[in-house]
Fold these 2 entries.
Entry 1:
Amino acid sequence: MSELITAQGLSVRHGDTEVLHGIDFTISPGEIVTVVGPNGSGKSTLVRALIGLEPAARGEVTRKPGLKIGYVPQKLHIDASLPMTVRRFLSLPKRVSDAGAEAALERTGVPHLGARQIARLSGGQFQRVLLARALLTEPDILILDEPTQGLDQPGTAGFYKLIEEVRAETGAAVLMVSHDLHVVMSASDRVICLNGHVCCQGTPKVVAEAPEYRALFGMGTQGAFALYQHDHDHGDEHTDHATCTHEHAHV
Ligand SMILES: Nc1ncnc2c1ncn2[C@@H]1O[C@H](COP(=O)(O)OP(=O)(O)OP(=O)(O)O)[C@@H](O)[C@H]1O
């Protein structure tokens, strides 16, 4: 198979609630795919299911045999009272050589941070260290759940530029969850809008021009947008065209 990860008819439940239903998904080598959608729409659940951290209630997820995944979760709590240097953090859970750690920090633009306490890093530095850690395994695919959360606009733009450089250098595919719609649109090969199901997907250009997408994310809001869940279901297609369906935007 050429796809790195495939999901067919994937549904995931949390307790009695079906959080995701009928998801068809693929990601190919070297692709940058971004998942957007309102809070609680199942973005983190989807990436966790694709990795195998959440069981499928229905459907199936297939990963290419031997696939190496570099995963940066949405939340990683590190106790501020626990002394731990960046260098030590990079060796958890698996020890890495000094040369390997240095190369990864260099690659993510923070070569001087090895001796620093992890709890004292800025948000942007911490994200770059997390990315360095994810790169240590030389992954076929990087999976980043809201990697620029809490970063300012230059920090966010810089981080996405770094992601593109890493993709260009290593050929790794990238699957991201993000709320930074404007940057996401330019940095992604494909955007998937999720709302419990895939309600919209396509190339950034095609999706951005789709009236449905504009309705979904709002116009004239200076980047602010609001999305509301809808409770009807319908078929979704995977095509190169935007396949937005009738969502309701309230801006
Ligand atoms: N471990 C869990 N147990 C029960 N319910 C959960 C669990 N994790 C997530 N949920 C619920 O599943 C739904 C989807 O959550 P998920 O975190 O996947 O959404 P999301 O799109 O990533 O949200 P956000 O943008 O706020 O990060 C939410 O209603 C959430 O409350």
Entry 2:
Amino acid sequence: MTEQAKTWQIALIQTDITLGDPSRNRDYLKNQMEIAASSEVKPDVIILPEMWNTGYALDIIHEIADPNGEESREWIAEFAKSHGIHVVAGSIAEKRDAGVFNTMRIFSASGEEAASYSKIHLFRLMEEEKHLTSGDQIVSFELDGVLAGASICYDIRFPELARSLSLLGAKVLFVSAEWPHPRLHHWRTLLMARAIENQMYVVACNRTGASGKDSFFGHSMIIDPWGEIVAEGGEDEEIVTGSINLSLVDQVRSKIPVFDDRRPHLYKL
Ligand SMILES: NC(=O)CCC(=O)C(=O)O
């Protein structure tokens, strides 16, 4: 299939997360992914929320984070391969020698790990910077020959990241999040802005439920490169689905040639 004709059916697993209980979260999520995989219209891509293994159990994060992400990598790669589905595996708390990272891993439908991205902007309002180590790389990856970019939650407040990824050629921005009330307006507006300004699809999966003082509103979204909402979840747990047509990216980019009209020598970044 040429890229021009390519469409992806997407399933966003918008779930609650149990604080500090990786094995319960794994089992629950596995079950949700099985349900998504067996739906009438089989997804090409499944995406999960942020820090789904532990939630923001930051006080004990060094004890419960997945060492090198190994346990999670093993079962997700196996899931991707056995179902023939790409998995943008949200993010997990992952323990390495340098500290605990908030890391997204991406698996192709053959079960290969396509890329991994560790959150580069740590969110002070939830004290990430006190407990986590930030990543130091922007990450793009290819699925079915389509270039996509990785981002995690607070990252969407930094237009430089999505712009850098779109300049690399990314046509889809995947976002995994634990984004709480009362900032629903910011979430929706920022996601829409990233889609419109970069003329790319934005596929964003947020969790539901409550944890400590935070309550998470879901509203996972798929937004097309023209800024139209393809799908949006409510506030409760659900599997949000929608289809994206990658040829729309080129159509929008040729209708309003933003990338040709940029004046980078005038910008101070
Ligand atoms: N987990 C996060 O990065 C939350 C970001 C957030 O809530 C925001 O307002 O930004």
